[in-house]
Amino acid sequence: MADAVQIPDEAETRARWGAFAWNEANAATAKDVIARYPAGRQQSAVMPLLDLAQRQVGAETNTQGWLPIPVIEFVAAQLDMPFIRAYEVATFYTMYNLAPVGRYHVQVCGTTPCMLRGSDDVMRACKDRGMKKGATTADGLFTLSEVECLGVCANAPMVQINDDNYEDLDYDRTLAVIDALARGETPKPGSTIGRQTSAPEGGPTTLTAMVGENHDYRSEWAA
């Protein structure tokens, strides 16, 4: 279901990002991340460093961020690993963007649980706000992608927008989230119907009394 990524022109990319380097704060963060791993195992830091680099690119472009090839090369060189190994990681996980995206990257889950619970309505709401799969809106605000399972099946359908999940969506609730973002607001992440984490609608129906409330469960078990 995922759309093929259109890698930007290499000459333009290298002209813009060929001299990429950590800013002062991220240089310190990268050093701390690498130090978490034993000597000789620093390449294990490739995932957090790619994420850090993507966030720096995002901060510099006022977008969710992406990973130009020179930026991946920079991370690989810092970890003394072949570029292709870092590139394999970046191309495997959808958390890394290989092409520019908008301020908000709207990732609609279309896997079976979300599909059965109405992901088509979520996608329709996105399209009715001018989004097109694999493209960024003309104002640069939204990029729309359809992705595989994001692990929130109990609260389907859902979308991930940048770092936040919005769950229990329908057409109108999806529009509400999108419109709030467009106004510069930050909608509350999580369930859009007030569900407690992944508890049943209306709240938990079992284990409603906590052990810390001095309830004597042993008497119930004995009975």
UniProtKB/TrEMBL annotation:
Keywords: 2Fe-2S, Iron, Iron-sulfur, Metal-binding. Residues 186-215 are annotated as: Disordered. Its cofactor is [2Fe-2S] cluster. SUPFAM superfamilies: Thioredoxin-like (SSF52833). InterPro entries: NuoE-like, NuoE_dom, NuoE_N, Thioredoxin-like_sf. PANTHER family: NADH DEHYDROGENASE [UBIQUINONE] FLAVOPROTEIN 2, MITOCHONDRIAL, NADH DEHYDROGENASE UBIQUINONE FLAVOPROTEIN 2, MITOCHONDRIAL. This is Complex I 24 kDa subunit family protein.
